[in-house]
From TrEMBL:
<keyword id="KW-0677">Repeat</keyword>
<dbReference type="Pfam" id="PF13516">
    <property type="entry name" value="LRR_6"/>
</dbReference>
<dbReference type="InterPro" id="IPR032675">
    <property type="entry name" value="LRR_dom_sf"/>
</dbReference>
<protein>
    <submittedName>
        <fullName>NLR family CARD domain-containing protein 3-like isoform X1</fullName>
    </submittedName>
</protein>
<keyword id="KW-0433">Leucine-rich repeat</keyword>
<dbReference type="GO" id="GO:0031267">
    <property type="term" value="F:small GTPase binding"/>
</dbReference>
<dbReference type="InterPro" id="IPR027038">
    <property type="entry name" value="RanGap"/>
</dbReference>
<dbReference type="GO" id="GO:0006913">
    <property type="term" value="P:nucleocytoplasmic transport"/>
</dbReference>
<dbReference type="GO" id="GO:0005634">
    <property type="term" value="C:nucleus"/>
</dbReference>
<keyword id="KW-0343">GTPase activation</keyword>
<dbReference type="GO" id="GO:0005829">
    <property type="term" value="C:cytosol"/>
</dbReference>
<dbReference type="InterPro" id="IPR001611">
    <property type="entry name" value="Leu-rich_rpt"/>
</dbReference>
<dbReference type="GO" id="GO:0048471">
    <property type="term" value="C:perinuclear region of cytoplasm"/>
</dbReference>
<dbReference type="GO" id="GO:0005096">
    <property type="term" value="F:GTPase activator activity"/>
</dbReference>
Length: 224
């Protein structure tokens, strides 16, 4: 049938954590996993990092897992070569999900279009706490989209954006993001802007942000 053996998955179904990192899963395997977890009350973490997941795989995760499952708390898909189209697929599930608290999409290929495709879903989601979009070839347009989402979303409190390219001569996108976080009703716990080629032009909005924000951790290392 062309399915990757998932004996490890079967063993972990009642253990809370399903760890299939670098396991060579394909879209048909992902479909089987999503179907098995649709109504599973035990698994709180699914880690698919290091597998090359197609748009089709993202569709199955959104439609079969995120729309139906009410137990999953953490979904990790680091380094899965997820595209902007895959992000759009996932967005449909994220918008309707009411259990997921941590979404790790670092080291993918979402780009600005992928984040813009997720903007409305992130704005409407009322449970997500941590979002990692590090190393996704994101630019100022993605920062602005995230800022717009965070104007409405009041639950996200940790945002990873390291190793992207948020640099602008006039930092408009960064300003939108920082202002949205600054105006949150709840304090923001963690914001990672390291390795973004930010230069002196970013100093003004960052200074204003630090004066008025209640962010607990801000990482700015390895910028300009």
């Amino acid at each position: 049938m062309g399915l990757v053996p998932i004996s490890r998955f079967l063993q972990q179904l009642n253990e809370g954590l399903v760890d299939l990192r670098f396991y060579g899963v394909n879209p048909r395997t992902v479909r089987a996993i999503a179907q098995a977890l649709m109504y599973n009350p035990s698994v709180h973490t699914l880690d698919l990092s290091g597998n090359w997941l197609s748009d089709e795989a993202a569709y199955y995760l959104a439609e079969l897992l995120l729309r139906e499952n009410v137990a999953l708390r953490r979904l990790a898909m680091r380094g899965c070569k997820l595209s902007a189209r895959a992000a759009a697929m996932l967005a449909e599930g994220v918008e309707l999900n009411h259990s997921l608290q941590e979404l790790d999409l670092a080291d993918n290929e979402l780009g600005d279009d992928g984040v813009k495709a997720m903007q409305e879903a992130l704005a409407q989601n009322d449970e997500l706490r941590e979002l990692d979009l590090s190393n996704n070839n994101l630019g100022p347009a993605a920062a602005a989209a995230l800022g717009k989402a965070l104007r409405e979303n009041q639950t996200i409190e940790s945002l990873g954006l390291s190793r992207n390219n948020l640099y602008e001569d006039v930092p408009k996108g960064l300003r939108v993001l920082l202002r949205a976080i600054q105006q949150r009703e709840k304090s923001f716990q963690h914001l990672d802007l390291a390795w973004n080629a930010l230069n002196a032009s970013a100093a003004v909005p960052l200074r204003a942000f630090l004066v008025r924000s209640t962010v607990q951790e801000l990482f700015l290392d390895h910028n300009r």
